[in-house]
Amino acid sequence: MQQQTRSVSIDEVKRFSQENPDGLIVGVLPPEFHVLQHVPGSVGICVFETAFQEKMANAAPDKTTPLLVYGAGDSLDSEVAAEKLRREGYADVRVFPGGLDAWRKAGLPLEGERADRPLPEEVPLPRFPRYVLLPEKSAVQWTGRNNAHSHRGTLSLKGGELEFDGGPQGEGRGILTFDMHSIDCLDLQGDVLLPVLLAHLKSVDFFDVALHPQAHLRILSLRPLPEGTVTGRTHRLRGALGVLGMERVLECDVELRNLDGGELGMSCQLVWDRTLWGVRYGSARFFRFMGMHSVDDNVGLTVALVFRNDQ
């Protein structure tokens, strides 16, 4: 039997159950949204679940069953669901692309715990005006290399805070403090060379930890990006990074995520040119004929921070 997929209008959705008594209207949003609101008479089967096809097979074992799928509206959810169903061999799949948005705007009734108002949008902005760092949940991972080897390790934080003086929707600022004594190397754990490398990194050749036991980042501005989403980069960070007693401005895009319990996650990945902060050991910008002692100028940094709200 030839497979069909076509878009339908609101009027066709309203007539679907009457014209197809053996058919099935399927809302493809996650269950926590389906329970809040859905088109009357529809069942909820989440298209994002890996068990979507299995659940559809249980709900509609006959591949000739007329199916009408809808999602949020202005979203690819229903189209993706229709494609998956086509691949499973369903012969009559219809898509209502307007979804919940179009149904609500037309003034048609919805069912569910929040049927009388729009679903809450997932926004990538913090919920509270002030946050305090949770060092035990936060860390920086680093990657450094030379021509022959590469190493990866961690750096712990001592503390930090974020403030959004103009409210959570506005620009933020803050401070982060790093514990330079905590420098560790993950790939040499249990190796006799581990203490040798760590002592070198903490020596005057690199971070001179005896004289500079802390580094810091003064976050001068944390500005929302106009195109920020909950699955991408959300804010532009501009800060003054202090290493070896020298401050230089650093800028990068970061991702803010609202977490459970009022916590806030902040993460980013960047390449840091250590030589601009006076960490010059092994750099060909400053030395010649180093042989095996050369070290790449750039250090890869993966930053993952967790803050708690401090209202």
What kind of sheet is the major sheet? 9 strands, antiparallel
Helix and strand succession? EHEHEHEHEHEEEEHEEEEE
Distance between the termini: 62 Å
Average per-residue pLDDT, rounded, comes to: 95
CATH-assigned fold name of the largest domain: Lipocalin
Q: Which homologous superfamily in CATH is the superfamily of the largest domain?
A: Lipid/polyisoprenoid-binding, YceI-like
List the total number of helices.
6
Query: What characteristic shape results from the CA principal axes?
Result: elongated
- Structural class by helix and strand composition: alpha+beta
Count of all domains: 2
Poorly predicted residue ranges = none
Strand content: 35-45%
Helix amount:
10-25%
CATH level-two architecture of the largest domain: Beta Barrel
Number of strands: 14
User: What is the CA-atom radius of gyration, in angstroms?
Assistant: 27 Å
Q: CATH class of the largest domain, please?
A: Mainly Beta
Describe the structure.
The chain has 311 residues and is of the alpha+beta class. The protein has two domains: 4-105, 3-Layer(aba) Sandwich (Oxidized Rhodanese, domain 1), CATH 3.40.250.10; 130-309, Lipid/polyisoprenoid-binding, YceI-like (Lipocalin, Beta Barrel), CATH 2.40.128.110. 15% of the residues lie in helices and 36% in strands. It has six helices and 14 strands. Strands 6, 7, 8, 9, 10, 11, 12, 13 and 14 form a nine-stranded antiparallel β-sheet that branches. A hairpin with an 8-residue loop joins strand 8 (150-163) and strand 9. The mean pLDDT is 95.
